[in-house]
Amino acid sequence: MKTLLIFIKPYRWPILGILGLTLVGIMFELYIPTLMANVVDIGIVNSDIPYIIKTGIWMILLSLMSIVVAIGGIYLTSKVAAGFARDVRLKLFVKVEGFSLEELDRVGTASLITRTTNDIKQIQEVLSIILGMATRAPLMLVGGIFLAIMMEPKLSLIFIIALPVLVLVIVLIIKKAIPLFSTIQKKTDRLNLVIRESLTGIRVIRAFNQVSHEKKRFDVANEDFRDTAIRVNKIMALLFPFMGIIISFSNVAIVWFGAIQIEQGVLQVGNMMAFLQYALMIFMAFIMLSIAFMMIPRAQASAKRIGEVLQMEATIKDPLKTNGHVNQEGRIQLENVTYRYDGAEKPVIENISFEVEPGQTTAILGSTGAGKTTLIQLILRFYDPVDGRVLVDGIDIRKMSQKKLREKIGYVPQKVSLFTGTIEENIRFGKTDVTKEEIIQALEVAHAIDFVHEKENGIKTMIDQAGSNLSGGQKQRLSIARAIVRNPGFYIFDDSFSALDYKTEARLRQMLKEKLNATIIVVGQRISSIKDANQIIVLDEGKMVGKGTHEFLLETNKVYQEIVYSQSMEGEVS
User: Pairing state of beta strands 409-412 and 490-494?
Assistant: First the structure.
């Protein structure tokens, strides 16, 4: 919770305004019962109609002013709560954007979405309650008790019994509910995860007739969430009946002993009515505080989860002092690079060393799980090696800013990510100040211009979420064009031709060879995609087992020979 207090500071003046308006409003409300007592004890008893009318007008004016003040307080409260939520949400989003893949893997995408939306919403609601009810209730409580004691000290003794019992009930119930609120947030994470997987994988689920299985999986998560929510609501539901009983007995006691004092001539009827009003205010203050206490535990759980993310340090940071010397050689070197994922028994890649010469093409080949993509992610500094180092243009990438490193690289990922918007907007994602002519040229090089021209709106054609209105090959070619338009010193193609047919792939590779004057790293499964590379790196179970040209490896490397043989049997090697 302390981590989030810093976000309150910019709103200290509006908060002081809320407190001031609340104080003025409470003063108006607390004075009205006294006026009512005077109407009864002075105006009605003495049949003083002018006094009754004058006092009644004052009561109406005070009520209207109290309403105006309350509206002002509600407006400021909403403004502060919404602004606070916006600031925290932005800070959380920026923080997550700066995480390496290691932190993202550790927390989980579904949980981060829940923390950015549901958890912040919980805190926003509680902040509204605290600024509204929780600031109002203590003032009303103290003011009501003070005026009640001043008016009738003997009747006020009833509060000595009632109020401690009320506090005890609230504390016991809240203490029982707090652990369950944390559990609910975890159940929400799980529910969001199941929903997200079901929606993103809907095609696979239907293709394999697993709709009923996914329904059962959702039912389990949903019912688990429901059962926990019912448990906590059952506990919290006890609060108001107990409070109602205590308040009712207190009112009965006030009327009982007040009637005795009226009969004895010690207490006037007007004062009795005013005292009941103050008692109602005091108990209403406790009800408001109890509502705040009901919400605070859940907000604490949410604040803790948000604080965990905000306090989490990214494992990959820019150095305090970056290397100012910028080469444009186009050289990449890996020196004894080893990487192990958190919790893994053995490294996913181990002791990898090779050099990518400027202007040449290096291919990385290996079976599934050999560590090819991990190797690329280390070059991009999505992860840092646990041992060894990666150098780009002679500089250790840990001594470069991440922005400067990635400006040098045009990256086409294994899993294509396109965004909702036009084709033009997606290409500009690679370089915002690119001209229309450069976009067309990049589409031509990526062999995507034909299908783009076939679209009714050309480069202005809208792309649906995740590119669902495009084929796999079309998405890959747009992703390649997005990288090309950057005109970087390095290109990294991570299995970026897998969705293309052999003819299109061959024409695309030829176009890339002719048009791109840069260092290229290609990760591939097909021998036909990588056999023309200047050097081929062969990986097997995370280790480099071969390096050289296609012809050299074909003669000397057993693993490479097996891959070539298996693909030639399938007719994939041309």
Answer: parallel
